[in-house]
Amino acid sequence: MTDLVGVPQPAFVPPPRRLLALLAVAAARPLAGAGPRRIRAVLHLLRRGAVPATRQQAAAARQAVITVSPRCAADRSCLQRSLATALLCRAWGTWPTWCTGVRTEPFRAHAWVAVGSEPVGEPAHERGYTPVITVPPLPLTGNRS
């Protein structure tokens, strides 16, 4: 049996958000099978026009993803979970920083979303990775009134 990520389960996700979360999970699955260059290129395109996500928005997206998808709630599904979280944020008009990284003792790779430099929803044992690829939100430009 696969361990679940250390977050409260299950949470209530309203039907409209549930549908978007399911679509984000479905879109993230084939994207997770792509190579790093393709993933980065797709995410660079998708982040355009989005405002930076707040910690609360990114956490709500992550929670919705792991609530609707047992696969994404599993420890070993960090890539699909992080991609689905970023895609759901984008559907809401926001963008977190999407990250992948490694650590050496013991060697492991991991993917997550962050706001600023802080991972969102990651348990303490999943901290301490050196980012290798990051796709942050684009800086806000122009005069927004």
TrEMBL record:
A Pfam family matched in the record: Transglut_core3
InterPro entries the record matches: McjB-like (IPR053521), McjB_C (IPR032708)
Recorded superkingdom: Bacteria
Domain called Microcin J25-processing protein McjB C-terminal: residue spans: 21-133
Protein name as annotated: Lasso peptide biosynthesis B2 protein
Species annotation: Streptomyces eurythermus
